[in-house]
Amino acid sequence: MTIRDLEIFIEVCKTKNMSKAAENLKISQPTVSHAISQIENEYNVQLFDRISKKLYITDVGLRLFDYAKNILEQFQNTVIYLQGSSAGHSINLGVSSYFSSQFLLEIINEYEKLHEDVKIRVYVDLREELLKKLDAGIINIAIIDGEADLDKIVSVPFYKDEIYVISSNHSDLKDKPVLDHDDLKGKKFVLGYLGEQSMKNLHSYLRDTNIPIDIKYICKNKDMVLNIVKSSDAISFGAKSSFNDDDIIMHRVKDLDISRDYNLVYHKETYLKKNLKDFVQFIKNKFKEKN
């Protein structure tokens, strides 16, 4: 039984049709039939019941389907890791999907210009998924919001992204750079995601100040938050780096001091090669001027 046999088996499970599986995989139907028969004969099992020219997966087939998906995922991750370890891809960088795309492009372009022999492959994902990839060795290092509260992960803080209230340029708040509590009362809010610790601090602030705000929308998509604010009278809390838009006004809030803290994280057991050490130092130096 080979990886290719498992790929074919998974596709047959999904389509429940060998001809369709062959079409999707761009191989012949006899090749698909042979792969399934090969597994069944090698291990003396039946993966499908064949009734009236239809395929019905057996209990053994269902169990193998679960195993096969995991095996294939691990195999693909291994291939990605080995490809990323080659000379052509020296750094596999994970980046939180909430990190500023402008900052990310600055980092990649400037670093690769300074180090022409180093190539950076970027994986943009949610914080939890990045930590899994880091643990699996798929990425060498990651930029995440907040610290990684894990013994085996090293966190290096490098940037505090201040949290502001944002409104549209046609809002009645547009001429007020600093808002007080009365300005927020009764306003419709779009509640986006600011990072775990920032959200806790924000909820504490709203509870302690007892400001009666109307949370109209709960949305984790940054672009949707932006569009709602721009096209309505709703306001939101947002990180300074996330909203570089002429139609958006940023306001400080009296007594509110919250930031979304970004960290570079890597596995404690990882030996940081010179290029990774240089990369960590490059980011720390670059963001000194932004803090």
From TrEMBL:
Determine if DNA-binding is one of this entry's keywords. Answer: yes
Which InterPro entries would you find in this protein's record? HTH-type_LysR_regulators, LysR_HTH_N, LysR_subst-bd, WH-like_DNA-bd_sf, WH_DNA-bd_sf
Q: DNA-binding: present as a keyword of the record?
A: yes
A Gene Ontology molecular function term for this protein is: DNA binding
GO CC annotation: what is one? Answer: cytosol
User: What's the domain of life for this entry?
Assistant: Bacteria
Per UniProt, the keywords (alphabetical) are: DNA-binding, Transcription, Transcription regulation
The UniProt entry, under Pfam families, shows:
HTH_1 (PF00126), LysR_substrate (PF03466)
**Any idea where the HTH lysR-type domain is?**
1-58
- Which family does the entry's similarity section mention? Belongs to the LysR transcriptional regulatory family.
Protein name as it appears in the record = LysR substrate binding domain protein
Q: Which organism is it from?
A: Peptoniphilus harei ACS-146-V-Sch2b
